[in-house]
Every structure is written in structure tokens, then in C-alpha cells.
Design brief:
single chain; 356 residues; mainly alpha; 17 helices; globular
Length: 356
């Protein structure tokens, strides 16, 4: 059976854009030298996987969950605390990841079985309550998690910045531990994204879409709605846990601000909505747009503000002030939703279908 089962992304423009983004991420160390571009590329990979796993719930199963950031935090804390307590070894990282996946699966199973038998709004409220409780717990257990300060830890030697794979640079790039860490994040994210793509293109994925469209009819046809939704919750939780583990390894730090912040849950939702719900490919485009805007919009506004000041336009100088980058980011999000309600993927598909 093919990994990429089902049809490819519809539309030549969408296919080209997906290929361009993937190649840009694969060649990021060669195309965009420097610490910040590499950090941005790694964050795009993590958020693409995180958004794709959330889209399995929101876009395909039609369930709104606020616990996705909790599963992300479980992965981050699982790997981070294992490396902190057991030392920088692959065995410790594997043990931490296995424990995190086990905890996430149990939590997702409990949430699904306890809340999916009733109305969908109850599922949303339960995920919000559990996520909030987990965040408070992580902050209060100072002896284990480090509280608000979090934990810094060392990674295996091959991932440390001082490690050198070759004696000198290759193609002008030093293949050190930092670069190896990036490609670990990239290839694991790519492999898990393809696995999620295989899930949504399977009969299970088609059943999820049927349940999303008309749960009563799907149940009348004999499909077990609670089973399918609970399994989707567990699969999405596993994807978010893996993304959290990759994020912790890349940052070499885990704390509430990087693993359990409410802004992360908002970012996940923004990524999925901008890219297009129920497409999975939209998570890749949405992550690229969101993360690049988040990191470079402030610098762009600074340049515009300086240009307006030189031109003697005080109103524009204040309007484009770099401190107002969140305002502009929110405005861009509103415009994207208004003019492309189906997301970037939907807009590109409509454009290609309208072109003769």
C-alpha cells in the first residue's frame, strides 16, 4: 500500500507551493545561513506537524479541542525531564518519549470515553479544563518540572553544537550538532506528517469525514462514532506529543512558556485556519506563513516605520511601529479568514479550478 494513498494535492499551484516549502525546509541550512533562519525553519517543521495532528481532530473529525497544547507539553516535559534526570543519552530520550506517549494516550482515551458520548460542546469544555489543570500542575511541581523556570538539559553528544560530523565545512556549511538536530526535527516531522496523511486517506479517515458531516447517519450505517472519535483523539495526541518532544530537543529547554502556554494553542488554531481545515496540507502552508510572519513581521514594520519617519509622515511612523506587530498579525489573520474562508489551500484550489 502506498504511503501517499489517495489523490495528490489538487491544483498545480498548490502542488508547486507544497514542493517549494518542503524544499526550502530541506535546504534551509544551505539557503538561509545563520542561527535565526535555522530556528525559524525548525519551528515551521514543529508547527506543521502540530497543526496537521490538530487538523485530524478539527478538520476531519469536526471536534474542537483545547487540550492539544497539553499533549504538546507532555511530549516536551517527558523528553526534557528524562534527559535532565537520566543524562544526555538516546536511551533517556527514548524512555522519556515512550513515557510521554503513554501518558498522552491514557489522557486522550479518558477524555474521549468520558466526554464523546454526549454533546460535542462538553468535549470542548472537558479538554479546556484538563489542559488548564495540567498547566497548573506543571507549574506547581517545582521539584520535578522546575516550576515557572522550567528545566534546561543537555542532549546526546551528536546533537550538541560542539560536535563536528566532518573535519571542515561541506558546501560552505559546517555539519555540527546543531545542523544534525535540525535535520532530526525535519525528517521526523516529515515522516509523521506522511503517517497522518496515510491515516486521513484511509477508510478510517473517510469514516471520520462522514461522522463530521452527519453523525446520526454515520451511526445509522453502523459506524461506532465514539470509537472512531476516541481513536482520532489518541492519534492526534500522539502527533502533538511527538511535536513537543522535537521542540524540547531543539530548544534544549522545557518550561511553561515553551510547552504549555495558551498562546501555543491559539497558534495551532491560527495555523490550521489559515492553511485550510480538513486538508492536512494546509498545516504546512499555515505553519510557514504564521511562523515567518511571527519572526519577521516586526523587522518589516521597523523598516516601514523608519521609511515613514524619513518621509516626514508621523502618523504612518506610529502606525508601523514595531511594537504594534501583534496588531498587524491579528489584522492579517482576520483578512485571511474573510477573503479566504477555506484557507490558503481552498483559495489556491479555487484559483486553479477557475483557470482554464
Amino acid at each position: 500500500m502506498m504511503i501517499l494513498s489517495g489523490p495528490p494535492p489538487r491544483g498545480r499551484t498548490l502542488q508547486t507551493l507544497i514542493v517549494v516549502v518542503t524544499l526550502a525546509l530541506a535546504l534551509a541550512p544551505l539557503l538561509f545561513p545563520g542561527a535565526k533562519p535555522l530556528n525559524v525553519a525548525a519551528k515551521v517543521c514543529v508547527y506543521a506537524l502540530l497543526g496537521a495532528s490538530y487538523d485530524l481532530l478539527l478538520g476531519y473529525a469536526g471536534m474542537v479541542s483545547f487540550a492539544h497544547v497539553m499533549f504538546f507539553g507532555v511530549g516536551s516535559y517527558g523528553v526534557g525531564l528524562a534527559l535532565y534526570g537520566l543524562g544526555p543519552s538516546w536511551g533517556a530520550a527514548a524512555l522519556g518519549l515512550a513515557a510521554a506517549l503513554g501518558v498522552s494516550t491514557v489522557l486522550a482515551l479518558a477524555i474521549g470515553l468520558l466526554s464523546l458520548r454526549v454533546q460535542a460542546i462538553f468535549f470542548t469544555m472537558v479538554t479546556l479544563a484538563v489542559s488548564y489543570a495540567f498547566g497548573v500542575l506543571a507549574s506547581q511541581l517545582d521539584w520535578l518540572t522546575g516550576g515557572e523556570d522550567g528545566r534546561s538539559f543537555r542532549v546526546p553528544e551528536v546533537l550538541q553544537p560542539g560536535f563536528r560530523l566532518f573535519g571542515g565545512p561541506l558546501f560552505g556549511v559546517a555539519f555540527n550538532g546543531r545542523l544534525i538536530s535540525y535535520y532530526l526535527v525535519f525528517f521526523v516531522s516529515l515522516a509523521l506528517f506522511l503517517a497522518l496523511l496515510r491515516v486521513v486517506n484511509s477508510p478510517f479517515g473517510r469514516v471520520l469525514e462522514a461522522i463530521r458531516e452527519n453523525p446520526l447517519r454515520a451511526e445509522a450505517l453502523g459506524y461506532r462514532i465514539v470509537f472512531h472519535r476516541t481513536l482520532a483523539t489518541c492519534l492526534a495526541a500522539a502527533g502533538a506529543t511527538a511535536a513537543g518532544a522535537l521542540n524540547a530537543v531543539w530548544l534544549r529547554y522545557v518550561g511553561p512558556d515553551t510547552a504549555l502556554a495558551g498562546s501555543i494553542q491559539i497558534a495551532i488554531l491560527v495555523v490550521v485556519v489559515i492553511g485550510g481545515m480538513g486538508t492536512l496540507y494546509g498545516a504546512v502552508l499555515g505553519a510557514a506563513v504564521f511562523v515567518v510572519a511571527q519572526n519577521y513581521l516586526q523587522a518589516l514594520l521597523g523598516a516601514l516605520s523608519a521609511g515613514a519617519a524619513d518621509a516626514g509622515l508621523p502618523l504612518l511612523t506610529g502606525l508601523f511601529h514595531p511594537d504594534r506587530w501583534l496588531l498587524w498579525l491579528g489584522l492579517l489573520f482576520v483578512l485571511a479568514v474573510y477573503f479566504a474562508p477555506a484557507g490558503l489551500v481552498g483559495a489556491l484550489r479555487s484559483k486553479d479550478e477557475a483557470t482554464p
